[in-house]
Amino acid sequence: MKPVMLSVLVAAACAPVMAQPGAVGSADALTTVERAQGWMLLTGAEGMKHWRGYRQEGFPGSGWTLSEGVLTHAAGGGGGDIMTREQFGDFDLKLQYRVAPRANSGIIYRVAERGDYTWQTGPEFQVLDDHGHNLAGNHPHSAGALYDLFTPAEGKLSRPAGEWNDARVVIRNGVIQHWLNGVKVVEVRAFEEDGSPTAEWAGAIERSKFAPMRGFGVQPRGHIALQDHGDEVSFRNVRVRDLGAPMPGEVALFNGRNLDGWTVIGSGADSGTWTVRDGVLHCTGEPAGYIRTTESYTNFVLRVEWRWDPETRQTGNSGVLVRVVGEDKVWPRSVEAQLHAGNAGDFICIGGTEIAGDPGRTSGRRIVKSHGAERPAGEWNEYEIIVNGGEITLIVNGETLNHATGAEVVAGSIALQSEGTPIQFRRIRLVPLD
Known about the structure:
Blueprint: H1 32-37, E1 40-41, E2 51-53, E3 64-67, E4 70-73, E5 82-84, E6 91-99, E7 104-111, E8 124-128, E9 165-172, E10 175-180, E11 183-189, H2 199-206, E12 223-226, E13 233-242, E14 251-252, E15 262-266, E16 274-277, E17 280-283, E18 289-293, E19 300-308, E20 319-325, E21 333-338, E22 347-350, E23 362-363, E24 366-367, E25 381-388, E26 391-396, E27 399-404, E28 413-418, E29 423-432
Antiparallel strand pairs: 1-13, 2-5, 3-4, 4-13, 5-12, 6-9, 6-13, 7-8, 7-12, 9-10, 10-11, 14-29, 15-18, 16-17, 17-29, 18-28, 19-25, 19-29, 20-21, 20-28, 21-22, 22-24, 23-24, 25-26, 26-27
């Protein structure tokens, strides 16, 4: 069992970011869009099938109950930690938790089933009554901390015992994030692209209580566990999606081998502007133009990853165009999800399209993002673009940055821009919502 008090080890991994992602609604159900995105509900009517005891075949016979969408551990009830039957590598987990006065628990992930406890292999999102323990919000064992490794950033809000807190854990392309009540409280790059631990991550483990534990914090995938710390704690609206798995009904727009399914537009259609190497779509940026899908789509969830050249790390301009209609020209009638470095998450209306967003962030045909969420040049980023009726939502690296209404509902192609700077794309996939 983990102690509550130790000295501060590591500074916060990032400044707080106020944003909507991480918030979970009160209804324990999935929307049509959430199902298309690949979310799986772990506390619904069939929630029990997703859980079993650590190193047990079934759900514990004591301590834990799942009733009306609320998963609860009774104080002193025993039962041990529970964990998902499923394993996850990169994932997005959202839930709400509520603790009794002075209660302690945790959300532990990428757990390997060896050793006596889940926390001997998996990192932990700390669940704690900070107020009852009189613990500073930036303590490495306080609520939202990456337990004993990274402290929560300033500006954290931890609600007192008896109130529900929104929690979120994301691992994507080597980066770990903890969110608490809509604030990103921890962000650390834990793994290199080849899966090896970064110096920062390895150093934090070496300075922690976990240093002697073989394989701690380096499992490429594992179970998600909820901790029995002997106290009363409840979880609800527990939902997760496997970021490495196909979305339900997913259509791969890019096959990783060639440009089948795409049409090249621009004066340099045969100049080698667009090439495919090692499963990655490379664009030289010259001349100006775009490639667009040969198929048209009206309502969909689109996910696409991009990065600026990892060797030169030169940044520039590009964009993802949705509902492209009319004449093929530079530039066609469409709504652009901006990829200009530093501005990913902006909307640009092209060719007379009209959408409505936050008036305070609207200037002419541009709607500026709420905040930035891009990775450094050379690292992979992910756009998730939800086009549903008259609404369009832009999500960058899991953070909702923009939302617009009033879009023209029309079937159109999807395009990627060549706009002056080398840029790379991969994992371009779509789920139709029709």
